[in-house]
Amino acid sequence: MDIERSEVIRVTSSEDVVRIRQLVREWAIRSGFNLVEQTKIVTGASEIARNTVNHGGGGTLLVEAVNNGSRRGIRLTFEDKGPGIADLELAMKDGYSTGGGLGLGLGGAKRLSNEFEISSRPGEGTRVRMTRWK
Amino acid sequence: MERIPILKMGEFLLVTIQVDMHDRLALALQDDLTQRIVDTSARGVLIDISALDVVDSFIGRTLGNIAAMSRILDAETVVVGMRPAVAITLVELGLPLHGVRTALDVEKGMGLLRKAVAGRRPGDGYRAQ
Ligand SMILES: Nc1ncnc2c1ncn2[C@@H]1O[C@H](COP(=O)(O)OP(=O)(O)OP(=O)(O)O)[C@@H](O)[C@H]1O
Ligand SMILES: [Mg+2]
Does the residue B13 lie in any domain? Predict the structure, then answer.
């Protein structure tokens, strides 16, 4: 897989979450995604960005325009060094929240992307990687 | 902190969301609207989200909370102007906004509010239809 372009931005405040929505929108437009696809990518990014801020204590987002030979895509990698998630299967379930949320962020972001990977270690942090292909 | 303006139009309150709201701004709108419903005895709230190109779970939940809270305060809420791409995405996200009345545009939303308020005796706490 080729990485055509990439950028790293910080994810520490709820203002950053808004900035990320705008930045990811620009990247999705530049990669030629249609309006519905852009909206799905941006919404998924917003969910994971908020988790990074609220649950992960802040972190970073790596945005990449990728190409697997036949298709172009956008890959988003969120990383934090927060408390991590002890039970990933449970955390992915719709309706599960430790923060009084709806518990839709992780499951929703997975549904809104084509590939979704999450890895986490309690005490070390969390990494979420989402890719959407055109 | 900046605030989303709330306009009073007769017995209704009108909110046009023109900026992409961060979470605290969305919460402030929820608080401000609740207070204004009480202060003005408003019978309805119309929220125009036609300028929003993204509604994620937090903003969606805020809209749901506003609708639920206004109902308790005997006012109806109608959300108007949701873009099709936003609606499609919300369903896939898993937040179909049950409990939030929607209309295509401000005019239809106003019609819905008037009908809902007219079909309800003051203070009985029930919705028309
Ligand atoms: N980066 C993270 N670091 C630590 N814990 C996390 C992280 N992301 C998610 N979690 C945990 O997984 C749970 C589920 O996350 P999810 O985004 O699905 O729901 P939520 O954030 O609680 O609510 P919502 O996103 O619907 O407002 C969270 O409540 C939290 O316990
Ligand atoms: Mg979340």
Answer: yes
Its domain, for residue B44, covers: 6-118
- CATH code (residue B70): 3.30.750.24
Q: Is the CB of A123 under 6 A from ligand 1?
A: no
Strands of B44-48's sheet in order across: B6-9, B12-16, B44-48, B76-80, B101-103
Q: Which residues of chain B lie closer than 8 angstroms to A15, CB-CB?
A: 22
Domain total in chain B: 1
Per-chain residues with Cβ under 5 A from ion ligand 2: A 51, 105
The SS3 of residue B93 is helix
Q: Which residue segments constitute the domains of chain A, with CATH numbers given? A: 2-133 (3.30.565.10)
Residue B21 falls inside a structural domain: yes
- At B79-100, the pLDDT tens digits run 999 999 999 999 999 998 888 9
Question: How many CB atoms are located within 10 Å of the residue A37 CB?
Answer: 19
- The whole-number average pLDDT for the span A108-134 is 97
Token duo for residue B102: 């929607």
The helix-helix angle for B23-40 and A14-30 (nearest 10°) equals 120
Report yes or no on B123 lying in a domain: no
Average pLDDT, chain A: 97
Domain membership of residue B58 (yes or no) is: yes
**Are A47 and B56 a contacting pair at CB < 8 A?**
yes
Given a cut of 50, whether residue B128 has pLDDT beyond it is no
What per-residue confidence (pLDDT) applies to B129? 44
Q: Could you report the predicted ipTM of this complex, rounded to two decimals?
A: 0.94
